[in-house]
Amino acid sequence: MSNSELLFEYLLRNGDDRVVLGQRMAEWCGKGPIIEEDLALANISLDLIGQSVLFLKYASEVEGKGRDEDALAYFRDERKYKNLLLVEQPNTDFAFTIARQFFYDCYEYYFYTELANSSDETLSAIATKSIKETIYHLRHSSEWMLRLGDGTDLSNAKLQDAVDYLWCYTAEIFEMTELDNALLADGIAVDLNKIKPLWDAKVSEILEKAKIKMPDENTYMIKGGRKGVHTEYLGHLLSEMQILTRSYPGAKW
Amino acid sequence: MVNNSIQENILELLSGISDPEIPVVSIIEMGMVRGVEFQENRPVVVITPTYSGCPAMHQIQDDIAAVLKSNGIDAEVKTRLSPPWTTDWMTEETKQKLKKYGIAPPIGFSKDLKMDLFSVIQKVNCPFCDSGETELKSEFGSTACKSYYHCNSCHQSFEYFKCH
User: Which of A26, A248, B36, B47 shows the smallest number of beta carbons within 10 Å?
Assistant: First the structure.
């Protein structure tokens, strides 16, 4: 792959993580457990979708084939999506949503901290801008981890289930693929090996405070998102997200 | 010289465009307009988004294009991310306008944003009765830039424009 193809792929991965998780969080709109949470989840969704636009818009420029950010989001099929498996997992219940968000926010925070130093000016600008939003997200999900984990027996059990279930999708986050290594050599990509220990430390700190047990260290880790091999949930999510644009191409408000 | 007067003229026009979510302040007062530049003598209006997902940005871009067009100015509108938008760019006067409108203005500076849990709840005075007896209900309000408070003195709920 040429350098611009590598960069395009890197931008897709990042745009896709955010558009998929943003779409998931938007499913809560109007269904939040309390109105404040309804607002919070919708706001976080909006931030993530906004950030995905920044990545996909840049991807569109790099590709230079006239596919804009909407075309990239709405007219690619499941196998062309390169998001992490973690972010496509269904909302299930509030504890599950919070655990998924916490694992992700924690990664995104350290990811942006590093990406802000990227030799690519646009990536660095996106990171510097977005991290201010991520700080709010991480605080929100961390605080809910504590409330739920250190709450009632029921909330603790639900959160423990969620953490145990989602754990198998966390190793993929830090996998250095050939693409990561190639772009890291140019100072563009983030060294995921560098942020993994920070993520591990933060996650174990919060789990401990939340009275949640660390998941089994022998958990079999599932990967595939970066190659476009997804769990069954992504296709359903995309069909809902894409149906309007595909049924009525060029539709405008 | 010609460019200077075009620049002033454009900024004057832009100061008449208000933030669609907060009609009492202009997009210039909000710090969204980073300046007017020239590319081969064609003016380029450089704007910066507040929050990445802020839906008002589309409206603002359309408003700018419409105002310039109706005044016979051929200009391009460009978005620039760096340096990222911050509430530090709001003047004291703008903050007072927000307060008068019923939104508690941002307190402090962006660089002091912390990510500590629980401990960083900003003490905000009620924009209606100035009481300090207020409580944070949610860090996320009706728009991305605001959080939601309640005043225990006058029992009015209000929004706080987050320091960002």
Answer: A248
